[in-house]
């Protein structure tokens, strides 16, 4: 079984919480997660896709082939796709120093 992608970011969230604790002027940090979805049209997704990961390093010809294939796959799914996202926030209340 694979781990959720969000687990890869947990060390970063822990480091942020540790920094808040070290500052000493805040309550115990809390981590919040908000799950949401966004429906993309084919054109919206194809506009965004070249900005992702290793696709930014491809030659125009190779990128074009990938975008054509992804576009065809989205068309086969009805012309749009639903992408799940998770937003994570690490929060703490400032403690009065009076």
Report what the structure shows.
It is a single chain. The chain is α+β, with helices and mostly antiparallel strands. Helix content is 39%, strand content 24%. It is built from three helices and two strands. The protein has a two-stranded antiparallel ribbon. The longest helix is centred in the last third of the chain and has 17 residues. The protein is elongated. The mean pLDDT is 93.
Strand and helix layout:
Elements: H1 10-23, E1 30-41, H2 42-48, H3 60-76, E2 80-91
Antiparallel strand pairs: 1-2
How would you summarize what this structure contains?
This protein has helices at residues 10-23, 42-48, 60-76; strands at residues 30-41, 80-91. By secondary structure, it is an alpha+beta fold. The chain has a two-stranded antiparallel ribbon with strand order 1-2.
The residue fraction in helices comes out at: 25-40%
Summarize the biggest pleated sheet.
2 strands, antiparallel
Number of strands: 2
Radius of gyration equals 20 Å
Strand order of the largest sheet: 1-2
Overall pLDDT: 93
Order of helices and strands: HEHHE
Structural class per helix/strand content?
alpha+beta
| Approximate strand percentage | 15-25%
The shape, in one word, is: elongated
Alpha carbon gap, first and last residue = 51 Å
Q: Helix count?
A: 3
Low-confidence stretches: none
């Amino acid at each position: 079984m694979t781990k959720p992608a969000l687990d890869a970011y947990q060390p970063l969230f822990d480091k942020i919480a540790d920094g808040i604790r070290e500052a000493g002027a805040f309550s115990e940090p809390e981590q919040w997660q908000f799950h949401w979805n966004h429906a993309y049209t084919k054109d919206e997704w194809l506009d965004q896709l070249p900005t992702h990961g290793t696709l930014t390093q491809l030659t125009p010809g190779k990128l074009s082939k990938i975008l054509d294939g992804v576009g065809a796959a989205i068309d086969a799914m009805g012309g749009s796709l639903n992408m799940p996202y998770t937003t994570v926030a690490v929060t703490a209340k400032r403690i009065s120093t009076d």
